[in-house]
Amino acid sequence: MATSRSSRKRIRQSQTRNLRNREIKSAVKTGIKRFMTAVEAKDVEAAKKEFAAAVTGLDRAGTKRILHPNTVARRKSSMASKLNGLVSAGK
Known about the structure:
Blueprint: H1 5-40, H2 44-63, H3 69-90
Helix pairs in contact: 1-2, 1-3, 2-3
């Protein structure tokens, strides 16, 4: 157990940050899953809507360094290519 005041404060801060980061990561994963569900159902309009929501969540997580910026870019690129494939297949 931590004994000094500063170490106890550090533990409190890290617990708070850990909880917040887990919530944000979970929300990002949920957004990506919703997008993938819409793509698998071949629903173009729903996929576009979910893509926008997922990208917003990814960008926020990347800005706050909860996810590495390269991870954010990779996931956005992958999702965009799936969306473009779905749109071009629908034409």
